[in-house]
Amino acid sequence: MTALEHPARADGPVRPPVRIPFPVVDEVARHCLQEEEPETVHIEVHLPGRLDRDRLRASFAEALRRHPRILMREAPGHWYRRRYEWELTPEPDVEVVTFPPGGRGALRDARTRALTTAPPLTLSPPIRLEVVEGPGPVEGSEATDAVGAAPAATPRRPDATAGKGIVLFLTINHTALDGPACLRVLATAAELYGGQDNSPAAPPVRTPESPPPTAETPSNWSPPARVAPGTPEPSPGNGMLVTDLPLPHRPKGSPYTVNDQLMVTTALTIAHWNREHGAEPRPLRITMPVDDRPRDATMPIGNGTRLVEVPFSTEELGAHRASDMPGLLQRTATRTRALKSLPRPQLGHGAALLTAPVTPVAWRAALTRGLRRAAAPWTSTTLLSNIGRIPYPLDFGEEAGRAHAVWFSAPARMPRGLTVTTASTAGRLHLALRWSRALLSHGDGAHLRDLFEHYLHSTEVSP
């Protein structure tokens, strides 16, 4: 039993807190922290009704206790220690749930805070939940500036809940946790608050397929294309734009998935953008997180995805024609299935070797940062994180209701400088584009969104 399960009695000896060495992903992220571009993940969950503040705080606190791996902070240590360690705590160190002033601009301000201020690793837990009440009109789909500038894009469709409802806004320190893990905790809180069953939906049943034909895969040895610079902005940090779109149509029996359509859409969008900006044609590589964890209450909490890279050749993406789309979708499906099936450490074998605790952690940190800079030309072009259909109802009961929109965004540090994150609820695709301000501006983000929408529609072809 752990100290969390059996705390020491008041008159007995005080047991030291349980400590867990940083996993590989956490250590590499910890080595490469940059104050000007915090490694945060943001999740925003839109609900139609209202929540009682005290009940929500109590429900979320109990959800944290039911997933104790989230109640952790970085343990102090000497420079010559061999590992960073997480220190588990029986209760939060800080009030996790806050209620900032509502009204027009409140949601934009919450997004800005998610891009500029990460929850500290030294306080448990390394997340915060802001409850924005009565968000103002058109805030559900606008660009958000890292320093709080005015919106730079108009909504894609009227927001029927403008000025009503609430938005649950989670900001996560990505060194410690990822979005799917925190969504699992939020689903537990929803069940505790509303008394409704928030068990995950069964994954879609796919027809067993015969082994796909081997497709020629572009080489990974040459440096991939970078996203061509648009109009960089003078201040550091990230910008973000969120919007929602119809889910792309996929004919019954198609040999590809919506994830494959999103992968092709992202590749064609960046290829088009680069041609417009005079970049030399180069192969693209798109990083894709793969999450094999169960979605029920046993889901391991932490950074649990592994990363694979999906390549595209210049011939596949150059001056693309509609008649080429079925073949491109099929080849992409073949590649993604093959990559998902390969056993591989989360960040590859090199990262596991780099984080072996044989030298002081401070030395490994300096080496990791140096190797990251040297490997920058070989870093993938962008990252596409498709959460897919939100598996939980996120039903907070009769007064608050069920989530009708959920957005995620992932960090967008250079050298990639752009990430694409998607999720779906109620037959809609919720898209977040996040970029480094050293690479792109709000106008660039709006143009990329329009290109993405165009190419997403172009994937709706007969098999």
Kindly describe this structure.
This protein is of the alpha+beta class and 463 residues long. It has a single domain (21-198, 217-458), classed as 2-Layer Sandwich (Chloramphenicol Acetyltransferase), CATH 3.30.559. Helix content is 27%, strand content 19%. The protein contains ten helices and 15 strands. It has helices at residues 24-31, 53-66, 106-116, 179-194, 258-276, 314-317, 325-341, 349-354, 361-374, 442-458; strands spanning 19-21, 40-47, 72-74, 85-88, 97-98, 127-133, 143-144, 166-173, 238-246, 284-290, 306-312, 382-389, 405-409, 418-425, 428-436. A seven-stranded mixed sheet has the order 7-9-15-14-12-10-11. A five-stranded mixed sheet has the order 5-6-8-2-13, sandwiched between helices. Strand 5 (97-98), helix 3 (106-116) and strand 6 (127-133) form a beta-alpha-beta unit. Helix 2 (53-66) crosses helix 4. The longest helix is centred in the middle third of the chain and has 19 residues, at 258-276. It starts with 18 loop residues before the first strand and ends in a 5-residue tail after the last helix.
Keywords, separated by commas or semicolons:
alpha+beta; Chloramphenicol Acetyltransferase; disordered N terminus; 463 residues; 5-stranded mixed beta sheet; 7-stranded mixed beta sheet; single chain
